[in-house]
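1st attempt posting a full record on here, be nice pls
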Amino acid sequence: MDLPHTWFSTAAIGEDGALYVGSNTVNGSVGRLIAVDPGGTVRWMRQDLDEIISAPAIAPDGTIYVAGRNSLYAIDPQGEILWAYETGDDVFDYSSPAVASDGAIYVGGDDSRLYAINPDGSLRWTFRAGGHIQSSPSIGRDGTIYVGANDGELYAVGPDGTERWSVRVNCGGPWGCLPIQSSPSIGADGTIYIGAEGVVAVDPGGTIRWSYKLPRSGNVLSTPALGADGSVYVTSGRSIYALDAQGRLSWDFRTDGLIFGSPAIGVDGAIIAASFPNSSANSWEGTVHAIIETSSTNGGYAGAPWPTARGNRSNTGRAGG
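the predicted structure (as tokens):
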């Protein structure tokens, strides 16, 4: 099925197998949310939204949350808009919403704020970071929200909107602090992993546990995928990398094209990523790579509260799966 201009938005999968993905027109003037049946036919399409670059999230009741440039939308499974939280400015960009266990929706803004929206569409609180937030928030078992910002800091924010800690994870190079566009993953023991100028592991108290600068790589934009054995998988440039739980390189696989998205772990343990021949938007015919590890078994995503970019295999972007 050809769904135009969906290249930035990761599809989320509903309980009935429907796919929900964001789209926009070439000039970005109109955003779309598209629902696709498991058989591949379009169930419905909303074409009256702001430009959508980020991925949708799905609440346990089936409500879909998606961020347009000016608004966060709540849309029911039939495609009807329940409410829209409007900022009045181009605030929401690449940050995708995340849904907490109590129904709160978190999303980052280009105004350097992390927004918490109630399930009825009212504002609960905002938290100001030191730079634009293009990273998508992740949620730990205790409700702590983790998000990166363009000041090179990783922030831990409590469910009440107060800062628990922040740590510089992307400020060690000759260019000063670089933006963080990677989103955090959270391991079974609470360790937070994020892409920076390499991969950084931070313990739940905010201390850097280890960092590893990837060969042939600059600023890492992808979100690490975590195996149950502690393995960490990340993509950058033209390569897929595997690190062990201590931050040592296990292997790397070089592709012929550029990799823009984050890696995934298949049900058989395969490491999956897509590469494209160049960065031109006019050439999006790519290659999907599936790598089977022969000397180790990563165990898939079992045991971690947020082991991948959108929290789980269905990419629902919500706490608790």
